[in-house]
Every structure is written in structure tokens, then in C-alpha cells.
Amino acid sequence: MSWGERHSRRRIALRLFVLACVAWSLLGAASAHADRQLAEQDFLRATTTFGAMQRAYYLPYHNLYRGWPEAYSYLWPFSQALSATVALAGVQPAYRVDMAALLNGLAHYWKANKSPPSYGSYVTGPLGPGGTTFYDDDEWVGLQLVRIYRLTGSRLALKQAQMIFRLVLYGWDRNAKHPCPGGVWWTQDPSVGTRNTVSNAPAAELGLYLYELTGNHSYLVWAQRFYAWVLTCLRDPEAGLYEDHVSLDGTLDSTFWTYNQGTMLGTETLLYRITRDPTYLRRAWQDASASLQHFDQASLQAQPSFFISIFLDNLRLLEVTSPGTAYSNAIQEYADWAWSARRDPATGLFSFNDGPGSALLEQASMIQIYAFLSWGPRWYLPPPHAHRLRRVG
């Protein structure tokens, strides 16, 4: 082959390479544009649903929400409406006004004279009789207070989140004679007597976020203890999923709920972020894969939407921590289905046939789902100057 032929072939190869690079660049740009359009659509759906929720349920005089059959909502739905508002404020600062109003409403649930103080399940006097403390409800609030602190720098929000963590420590079962000793109780109601994934995994997440913010080692130690208890006592090794709770007689409720899987894989993701131990990241991948294999679209549609929003929040945390993964695609499909099949266009409200007592929860969860799908990675990254452990060796 002559020099001229070799030169000609090289020129052709170079042109093909350049054309391939241009094609890949155009495909990448088109994909990025499509992603932006989808995020904008999801955020528009979130804000539209927020408007519908506020019109139907918000009581501005007390900054509370309408309940059923009670006058005001319980803390659990309120906490999710707060979470929805914080999620919107994470994208659009105008929603900080609504967030501040709900913090005023949250104060109606605070039981300051209780030792340790806590948020009760219902509004306190003079608006209501108050209610039993549920540890998971307080933990949901604590997680939002951490986000509010990151969003606004409010030291009061951080202090309140730390007070909730002290409450959680009070709820740790210290009776070594109980089946699978340890674990945080679900509620302070003595007639219930269960220790749940949902009262321990979110507590672990709260502790890990507080460790990142403060460097207080006890937060990390207790978070690892909460996590280890669930891993030991409530993980089904065959399914690779987490069961709901254990009773005092040792009976296991083996129901698999999406939010239990989400808070555990979220805990593992945070443990990896802090310790850099790859074992935690591998477990998070395994939990995400096992969950999405178990919960196909039909199964997701049968789960409460307010469990799926928590599941998605933690999947997004894992995606950002482990770039290249796309676990939330299944939830995008669910979100598109819900918009077309479960939303009344006349009112803008969703209904999943969970009963009138779940109406506020359903709206709040769908706002969160659309907002989380529209979030960029910023809110799932560690805070500036986050405390981490140094790996040895």
C-alpha cells in the first residue's frame, strides 16, 4: 500500500471518528434536553398538586391542615405536607414562605412539658387534646428540620432536630429479656409493644445527618446501632427485604413496605458516605435491586403512595452518591401512571382509595414524588464541610 493510500485511509478514519464524536455529542445534548424537559414537567406537576392540596385542606389561621374525622390532621399527614413544602422550597425559594408558615403550625403538636419533650400525634391545647408520641412521626419531622437547616441556616431547626434525636434514644428498648433485644419502639403507647423498621431506620438516617453537620461521634454510634438492629432482627435473608416489625412475643410481621426498604438503603448510602466503607454501598445496591425486582409496576401501584415517596427520596440519594445508577426510573413510570389514572383533573386531587383519612397524605406524597424526580443532585450531596471518618489502610 502506497503512502498516498495510507494517508487517504487515515483521513477517512479521522472523518468517521469526528462524525461519531459529533453524533455522540448530539445524542448527549438531546438526552440532557429531554431530562430537563422531564424535570420541568415533574416540577410543574408538583406545584399544581401543591395548589390543589392547599385549596382543599390548608387552614391558614392556625397554619394547620383539615383532618378527618377530626378538625385537624394528625402529625403523620402534617409531617408529609411539611416534607412536600420543603421539597418545593428546595427548587423554588418562593415556597420558603409556605415552609415558615408550616413551622408555626408544627408548634401546635409540641408537648413541651413532657419528659423528654416530643411532638404528639395530634394538636395540643387549646386546639386539641394532644396525642400519643409515635417515634417514627417525630423522626420524619426531624429529617425535615435537618433539610430546613441546610436550606435556611436556622439554628432553631437544627436544635429541634437534635431534641428529637434525644427522644429517640429514650425510646430504645433496654430490656435484654425481650425477643431480639434493643430497637426503638414504634410508639409510647404501652398497649402496642412493637419495634419497627420504620422507627429505627429513619432514626439512623437522622443520626447520620446530624453527625455530618456536627461531628458529634455519638450520633454515628447510635445510628450504626439502630441500623444493625434492623439488619439483624428484621431482614428476610431469602427475599433480601426488610420486614415491618417484631412483637413482644417474638412474632414477626413479614409485610414488605416500600418505605422500609427505602430508609434502610438510604441509611447504608449515608454510612458509606461517612465511613467510605464499600460494604455499605454494596448493601445499598443489593437492597435497591431486590426492592425493584420485588416491586414491579403492579406491586408499586398497590403500595400506598406515601410509602413510595419515601422510597424514592432514598433511591435518589443512592443515585447521586453512586453515579451511573438509575433506580428512580421505575418511580417515574409510577408517577406518570398516577397522573393519568389517579388524579381528578377537575379538582387536581389524587385518590388511591385509601380512605378519607389518607387524602392529605396522598396529595403530600405525590407532591414529594414529582418534586424529588425534578431535583438536581445538590440536595442529595453532603453539606459543605460534612464530617467524615478517615479510612485506615
Layout: helices, strands, pairs:
Blueprint: H1 3-57, E1 58-59, E2 64-65, H2 75-89, H3 96-106, E3 110-111, E4 118-119, H4 135-152, H5 155-170, E5 194-196, H6 197-214, H7 217-233, E6 235-236, E7 241-242, E8 245-247, E9 252-253, H8 258-275, H9 278-294, H10 297-302, H11 305-321, H12 329-341, E10 343-344, E11 349-350, H13 359-374
Antiparallel strand pairs: 1-2, 3-4, 5-8, 6-7, 8-9, 10-11
Helix pairs in contact: 1-13, 2-3, 2-4, 2-13, 4-5, 4-6, 5-6, 6-7, 6-8, 8-9, 8-11, 11-13
Provide key terms for this protein.
single chain, two-stranded antiparallel sheet, three-stranded antiparallel beta sheet, globular, 393 residues, mainly alpha, 13 helices
Poorly predicted sequence stretches spanning 5 or more consecutive residues: none
For the sheet with most strands, the description reads:
3 strands, antiparallel
Helix content: 55-70%
Strand order of the largest sheet: 5-8-9
Mean pLDDT: 92
Radius of gyration based on Cα positions: 23 Å
Tally the beta strands: 11
Structural class: mainly alpha
